[in-house]
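Progress report, Aim 2. The chain analyzed during this reporting quarter is listed below.
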Amino acid sequence: MADYYNVTTNTGDAEIAAAIASNTKLAITHIAFGDGNGAVPTPNKARTSLVREVHRQPVTKYERHPTNSNWIEIETIIPSNIGGFWVREMGVIANGKLISHGSHAPFEKVADPTGVSEYRLKFTQNIKDGNVVEITLDESLIYASQAWVDENYIPRDEIIDNLITNDGTKPVSAKQAKILNESKLGKDENAISSTKLKYARKINNVSFDGTKDIIVIDILSDFSTNDIAKLKPIEVCNFIKTRTNNLRLNAHYKCVNGPTDGGIFPDPYGAIEGFATSDNYCSYSWQRFSAINGGEQYIRHALDNNTWSEWSTIAKTSSNVASASKLQTSRNIAISGDGTGSANFDGSTNVAINFILKDVNDSAGTYGANNLEIPVINLNRKGQLISAGNRQFPYAGIGQYGAAILYDGIDSYSKDHAATANAVRQLGENRYQRTFSSNQEFDLARNDFDGIHTEYTWKNSPAGSQIAAAQFFKYSQDWIGKLFFDIASHKLYTQTFTGGTTNSEWKEIAYTKSNVASASKLQNPRQIFGQNFDGTNDVNGTVTASTGIFQADEYHYIDTGRNGIDRMNFHGYNGIFNFIDAKNGTIVARISQNGIGCNAASASKLQTPRNIAISGDVSGSAYFDGSGNIQINTSVNGFDNWKGQNGYTKLPNGLILQWGTQDYASNPGEVSASITFPIAFPNSCLNISLTRKISAPSNDGDGTALLISTTQTMAHISLQHMNQNSTGGLRGYTWLAIGY
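Predicted structure tokens for the chain:
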């Protein structure tokens, strides 16, 4: 007996007998499909339903067997969008009852909306009387199988609406049949004209039936290279068919329609050959022209029966072509200048050049670390460091910012020193009091009065302001000085008189809290790079950077770095830094938030970093601005993996390894099982290995796993017992599959 078969059920026998007895039709409406609850069942006449039904599909068609009247052929189709279950059994439903039960080879029906997994079932059923079969079906229940459609259905667009198409597999339209009937010629009548002769005739040994033109030329007398070049493709083909399958004519004649027409070859003399590859397809004709001088060859082919293509030159192995996949001689690409690098390149693959910047100078070191020194940096137009050195921090003077030197006395004429508070105190204690009248000229030459005056304004006072306090004068044989208090600015001025003839310039006296242009000593010693400094002496020795900051205000300062911080920062409001040529004041470079503002012929760094990307079998990218070498981390495309109990890995050569495991709490018995791969194999599963699991080393576990079938997405297996008395420890299984 066959492995898979069907039997009529007891209910089916009764229904068939009743139909025969009552002379009624037995309406077969559906085919039921079941999964056998995990195993293929044995067909059983006593069954009234499937072991476990998973789907019921209307019958596509059924009909009496053409040779056996007791057999009927039943067919159904499960559409591609229905699935997600296994088929191991089936049954025929008639009058709502199961009349036949059959077994089926295990098969998984997947739901596939793409329309490529349609399932068609066709089988025969033996009954006692073929006349009981109802062969009239409700058309709404019928699915036409793809095979039936391909065999019997004629699409509308394949109906021919003309009388000239020569195709025995396609029907002609009723319209053309009517025209044919109305214009038909009786078999004994003679037509006035015709597109074809009933009997083909030969003209100069060339067959002619009137369907196409022929060329009759004597090849031995009047057909030159020039003539061949003038022929149309269809004429070349017809001529060749009348002579041989491969026409070859050599003659030294000018080819009027040859390559020289387009200026391809300067010598108008050579040989031309014509070819036709098939008697039935003359449009595949082509010609080859061989020039006498230079040995060049040209070729053209037929675009249609009346048109040639342009002549094309046939390249030699030594020719220089417009493009190529590889250079015959690889070339070296070298980079020089501010950096070096090179690579050999033949065009077969991309190359990466390792670019190394040159050292610009030998000025590496630490600057601004000694005795009030500040670093001086010289850059070229490319932004490269040319030199670096130190500059002494300036001392304060008239109109000059810097470190002030204090002088603790009242007898100095220096303009570069600042008086101490003690000197000012001495000046106040030694003053002489004099008085003047209001609003008169103040003159040190007048020496006939003493006292203090507290009114109004002196005409020649330094600020022309009203006096807010007393003026004090010192007298010793002559007026030698004066003090002036300005009410508007609250400032104190002094003026000296030398030799009774000359007044000095007014000088402002600093208060203890004033900021003077210069001084001989700082009131409060300050630390400069970690050393105390009050201005009385120079700072000698090594200056230890504490903060390492030269600051104009909170928005403008230079941070030179310090111990543990090896870098130098320049701070400016809005982040604009100019590098100026001291010779002519020209801005040679500008650094801002937008980068370097001057574009040079070459640079050590690109203003806009560029992305260098690699594609193809590997991928990767990196941004490159020329400031340093880059390394592109690449990954092999398609080299993917998933690490888990059920996982996979893709190898660069296209192979895919997949693995997995299935556990059961107890021995599942002899059952069929399915494995769904973590990912689908794009083409095929080549092999799969299976290993049974056991609960413990000491337990019985005599079993195996057998492979039934595989697809790109699944594998179907059968768990079996080798020894029925030694299976208590059997559990699940592991698997390893390989494919591509």
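The first helix runs from residue 10 to 22. The chain has a mean pLDDT of 74. These observations will guide the mutagenesis work planned for the next reporting period.
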